[in-house]
Records
---
Amino acid sequence: IQLDDLKRHRLLGEGNFGTVWLVTNTKSTKTKPYALKIQYFDANDEKAADRIRKEISLMRKLHHPFVVKLINTYEEEDNITMLLSLAPGGELFDRIHYKLPNNLWDSGLGEEQGKFYCSIVADTLSFMHARGYIYRDLKPENILIGSDGYPLITDFGFTRLLKANEQAFTMCGTPNYLPPEIIKNDGHTSSADFWSFGVLLYEVVQGENPFFYEGLDQVSLFEAICTESWYPCASCSDDFDDLIQRLLEKNPAKRLGTFREKDILAHSWFADINIQELRMKRISAPWKP
């Protein structure tokens, strides 16, 4: 598919990186929609271009049913564009935080829906970790909902390959989801993803962040993450509380998943989830776009 063959229909999103458009291929008899992600940079900033090229190279290696599919790329002097599979359900964030019929807002999907989305995310992270990759930017905005209602991980700008027994020291990610070891620059491994997964899980179920509240400055947030306990969950099951406690362990060496990643999905909270059935997409999603 050539760039000139793509017709832009509407803007799906924009940010510091650039823009994402809903497009179709004018040369095809099928009107299959795609997402066109255009990332701009200064023409003289070779480092910025290399970061995008590295992300593209990584996405070409990560073929997985719950990872957004890279279809083609196009490079120009001041931008690199990715043609991606479309996830028409938008971000998981907009499923967690939603408007009620009376125009008031509510948050949180509860434990049953949380199990559906987060078991798939945990299984997909495990696939990446088994190949030596750490993701480092897990958050609801980076999980999209496909046409079948299943979640898809996207945006691999902070993902990197780690050798056995190697640690990373780059300060990266999104503040609300950072583990203590990244904040303190102690060196981090795939265990950092388990912390972020714990924050994500809490937010999907509860509708709020376990450490952040509106108006909290970043210094206080980082202090809370490194030294304070997470906000207790008033109406959650004991199994859920135990899972969160083990994932939001400040010491990465003791964090659930660090010794054996399969221990996360083997936790009693996931006991009624059949991961093989989910991988085959035989379980109906709680919501479809």
---
Amino acid sequence: MEIRQIEYFKTLCETKNYTRAARQLHISQPSLSVAIQRLEEELSVKLLVRDNKRVMLTREGAVLLRESDVLLKQVNHIREVMEDLKKTEKRTLKLAFPVTVGAWLWPILMEEFHARYPEIELLIEEGSTYEILDGIRRDELEIGYGVVNINEDPEITSKSLVKDELKLLLNVEDELAGKEKVDIHELENRMVIMYRKGTSFSEKLFLNELERKNVHVKIQHVKEQATVFNMVAQGLGIAVLLDETELIRNNSSLCAREFLEPVLYESGFFWKKDRYLSSSAKKLIDFFH
């Protein structure tokens, strides 16, 4: 059995069509058919059946597909490790940050880290801490930054860098904007704009605090973080955030206030415990040590 055969099989399962699969693999359809036939002969089982030009999995094929996902993920990981060990001038590190956490890191990453390690290209994505943790579990991300409080997965290692507190985002014309610190009880019956339901740690932290203080608010969820900022800027509600981004600082319609009784959290880096960390990832972690 060859890895190439497994890759062909997986692509065929995804496209459910020999012609599309062959085109995607950049091989001829007869070559694909022969490869699948030899795989079935070697395993002595029927993996696929054709039905009206569509390809359907047999019971045995479904089992092989599940196992092939694990195998190919490991193969890709081995390729990444070997590539990292090569002495190349340029390296790429893929990581992710929540929009409203770690804003203080941006100038450090873009200026100081780049100045020290010009050979490392950073590919930075955005997402909530929950989404970043999920990406690390699925090996789609090597390292991420977010709120370490919510990590209860023993397979993921976290390193806390900063202790901070939840902040209230307000329109500058809001009556609460005139206060240096806001009592959470003053939010009773206010409209709170929040990023996608159940995807942000700030939501969990805030809702827990509301429940603890027996404070009731109205909540409107939106799909984009930028929409949260825009709605608050228009005076349509208030919001909570973990860090003040440049988008907020540069918007004259917005201001951030701390709570009278601080709602604390810690932020830092995450990575998979048993995964090989590239030299680029190690340099990034050590840089902030």
